[in-house]
Amino acid sequence: MNKYFLYARKSTDEEDRQVLSIESQIDELKEFAAKEKLEIVASLCEAKTAKEPGRKIFNEMLKRIEKGEANGIIAWHPDRLARNPVDGGQVIYLTDRDKIQNLKFPTFWFENTPQGKFMLNIAFGQSKYYIDNLSENVKRGLRQKLRRGVWPSMAPLGYFNDAKSRNILIEKREAKIVKKLFTMYVTGDWTLTALANWCNRVKLKSHYNHPNSASMIQNMLKNTFYCGVFTYCGETYQGSHDTFISRELFDKAQAMMRKRGRAREIKKHNFAFLGLIKCASCGCYITAESQKGHTYYRCTKKKGRCETKFLREEALVEQMRATLATHSIRDDWADKMLVKLDQEKERNEQTTQALAQKKKDTLVVVEKKLDNLLDAKLERSITTSEYLSKKDTLVNEKVRIEDKFAQLRGEGLVWLEPMREFILLSKQAKKVAISRDLLEIKNSMKNIGSNFLLKGKTLRFEAHLGWGIAAQSASYSGWCPRKESNLHLSLRTG
């Protein structure tokens, strides 16, 4: 009497796909064996594709058949046993040697005769054809996605894969954090480790819900997908997805990364105001140290003896808070100035049309070069490596032109956005003054002025143009059209 191994297999080991496949196969095969009165020695199952040889349980089953533990196999269909010529050949070879005397399938007829082996070989060939055809269909779909400029894999942070449209869309909350991450990094005040910790504090996690690390942040900052370009299998493509990181900001981040290189962080403490203030007496930088639960700032005394004394961080922060409070434009002034900016922007929008047309013509030239480059590749007049190299250059040039084209609406009035930013920062200064975030206070102070000096226990600095006017406006008790005009003119001139 023949003895059989019951073998069940599903194509993937992912739990969310074909989760009932093996269980249903086993139930059906046991019913089939009982009906045919077949003796089952063992039930074997595994979750692994049969596209390539190397299945552990399948190979162990064949070894046990070689040893004589069984001389037959029960499976749902021949494609459960093999979808590649190596495994299929092993099964047929064992039937030739009578190690396998019978194969039983509820959905396929087999008899250990030349005709039966021929039909089994055809079944294995059909399974191989199916998997090859499926692979080609997947590759064709990938190529079509790439032609459309769609990233054919999991979207990076700040985006999500939309199952309905099959496109990659912006995830607004994550995108806001990622953009803030770039702007923080280019200031030079944040290390990769500090940014990773900040991302963890604001609960920005990877798609696999892992906490951020310095290497993850570095990879994110280097990902060209954020500025509209991606590389797949060594070839560069222009993405059709919306972007929220400009090419200019991305390039600044790369420049900052190159500048820092692989230097190790040597700071043991996160003192907020290091590198900001110098000693008024000797010109050395002010350093910090912790004593009995408090932070004290003092001169490094690298040039010798200095009489500057210690200053507690709390006292230094209080001086900065007072400065921020007095360098804040009144809300009514700020609101009226913002209205004037909008009006002036609307009046002057037409001045950029000529430049826009020029850049559009340049873009047409680059697109023509890309078409000619593709024709040259198809005609085999250039090598694949030359094609990929030149395409990479042209695609990046095209993205830069389009990025400039998108920014042209503001190029004719280059002073508008800096002025708008100044007004908003000045308006916000009074709120920063009561913040507990020391880094936010430091950055706001850097907006106000420079050349920060500690003389005795007093902080002094040179206010940037416009901030002195803001300090004066804070002392005015009423609104005056003439004063508004003067302030508007001074800021525009600056």
Describe the structure using short key phrases:
single chain, disordered C terminus, 14% strand, 494 residues
Question: In percent terms, what proportion of residues is strand?
Answer: 5-15%
Give the biggest sheet: 4 strands, parallel
Structural class: alpha/beta
Helix percentage range: 40-55%
Q: Compute the number of strand runs.
A: 14
Description:
This protein is α/β, with parallel strands linked by helices. 53% of the residues lie in helices and 14% in strands. It contains 17 helices and 14 strands. It has helices spanning 21-36, 56-66, 78-81, 85-96, 114-147, 172-186, 192-201, 214-222, 247-260, 313-326, 331-347, 353-378, 384-411, 416-432, 438-448, 467-475, 481-493; strands at 3-10, 39-47, 72-74, 102-104, 159-162, 167-170, 229-232, 235-238, 277-279, 286-291, 294-299, 311-312, 449-455, 458-463. The strands form 5 sheets. The chain has a 4-stranded parallel β-sheet, with helices on both faces. It has a 3-stranded mixed β-sheet with strand order 9-13-14. A 3-stranded antiparallel β-sheet has the order 10-11-12. Strand 1, helix 1 and strand 2 form a beta-alpha-beta unit. Helix 11 (331-347) runs antiparallel to helix 14 and helix 12 (353-378) runs antiparallel to helix 13 (384-411). The longest helix is centred in the N-terminal third of the chain and has 34 residues, at 114-147. Mean pLDDT is 81; it is low at 13-20, 263-267 and 476-494.
